Amino acid sequence: MPPMGNGKGPDARNKYSGKPKNTGAVIKRLFAYLNDYKGKIIFAFVCVVVSTASNLAGSYMLRPIINGLVEEGSAEEKIVRLLSRVAVMALIYLFGVLANYLQQRTMIQVSQNSLFNLRKELFTKMQRLPVRFFDTRSTGEIMSRYTNDVDTIGEMLNTTIVQIFQGSIQLIGTLALMLYTNVFLTLVTLVTTPLMALVGTTIAKKSRKYFNRQQSALGVVNGYVEETVTGQNVVKVFCHEDKIIEGFTERNEKLRDAQVRAQFVGGIMGPVMNAMGQVSYTLIATVGALLCLTTGITRLDVGGLSVFVNYSRQFSRPINELSQQMTVIMSALAGAERVFEVMDAPNEYDGLEGDIELKNVHGDVIVDNVTFGYNPEKTILKNISMYAHPGQKIALVGSTGAGKTTIMNLITRFYDVNSGTITIDGIPIERIKKDSLRENIAMVLQDTHLFTGTVMENIRYGRLDATDSEVMRAAKTASAHMFIKHLPLGYETVLSGDGSNLSQGQRQLLNIARASLSKAQILILDEATSSVDTRTEQEINKGMDALMENRTTFVIAHRLSTIRNSDAIMVLENGEIIERGTHDELLEKKGRYYELYTGLKELD
Ligand SMILES: Nc1ncnc2c1ncn2[C@@H]1O[C@H](COP(=O)(O)OP(=O)(O)O)[C@@H](O)[C@H]1O
Ligand SMILES: [Mg+2]
Question: What CATH code is carried by the domain that includes residue 332?
């Protein structure tokens, strides 16, 4: 079995990771998504101001309330004074709660709508990206654009922006009220708070380091489990269970150690900050109490002391929160940058799409002196020339990796040739509209793919306007009708997880049925029957002959017996056509085809 990878599964990357390369540009672009909601955002910010202000004002009400108790007056007078002031306080708080509710509601709407647009744009863009984009990236990598990245952006839009705004107002407001209550005591607070903030950020930094380590260790373990689960039968077949357990234990130990550290540092943060908080609380309370005993400018009333103590506690909170929010912001911006990278990737045939619509296609295909490589360093196809007259059946044979599929990728323009030309009915394919080109080519690919949905829907993918009876006829052509009938709900059976409840061969039959539905004049069968048993294949071949009649067909076949009746057979080796001719001609030549056919050489 392949070596168990580094376990860099899709989850390996810490959600809060990375720094944007060009912060300014990303912020500008991200904020463009909020542009449509300007009014709502302003409203939300006004709500933030109101709720923060009422919070501050409400807590300030404690001063007159307490002072009311110690001021002169009869017991009844004191009670009336108390109740009326408490009522005012309650009213102020109520107002704040209302504003907070409105702000939350508005921001959730704004951020979810922005995310909706972002996801839509990203998905739409994905449908415009060339095959190359997907060939060069892992599924996990692309998926994490939708999950991690969009998620963090959402978090930032939803809460972080508001929190920063709120935190700043609260900081300024608290400071103002503290100064208003007592200048001298404020100065004392201004000395102790930065000290606490410093200790806080130091621990936080350490804790973040260990947290990151823990996350990547977790990613490794998850990736390992994922690989083992998907490859469970391979593990069993090769009796690698013990080895796998050993590998797991190693990674599991690393995770445990990382977690112990991360949680320890994370765990002491609270108590340490608490202790510091108590110390500064005691200090301020003592100094404040002493100030209550003085007269003149430094004098403080008892109510003032109690609100001040509260404020001094509140004061450091926004500072800590703001520094934490910076992490979210940085990762959100980095995520946004990755999302924008996808959005900026060149589209399929950006500016290179032709404008000719194919009509009444005859199916005359000419591949003329084509050279191609997936990347510039490595040429895969060298000077390939071949033609197919309308209705002909052309077979490609050759060992695995010879370049058969690659030629088909060029005819469908999944990739563009480096040099040479490919024409259909004499029209170079670059000049044909992409949709028009693909509508006229039906393909059964080597890798089958089925979508979640019924069997009927999956076959109808080949031609969306096909009627039920046309679908069934196609299934009969592909010899799929029999097995479909035996499925629990027949054509209405729901396939899920890429048709995991079907055999590989059955999946191929559905793919062939799909292609049979298509009215395309050109047909490509790339190892369409490689996973089907010989008997079924013979059965399909009857249907296939009907399918291929009057269509130009390119067949890449696994079993040479199925291509004997081809009009021409191309033998491909290392990206070159080394032999061509009919079955009989090639046998007579006693060359490579002869070797392949007579089984002297193994075929892929
Ligand atoms: N998407 C791709 N990117 C880079 N190289 C590729 C890609 N697909 C195939 N190749 C390479 O091109 C060569 C021909 O592959 P292919 O056409 O699939 O062979 P065949 O279908 O004959 O088995 C192989 O060496 C393969 O590694
Ligand atoms: Mg192939």
Answer: 1.20.1560.10
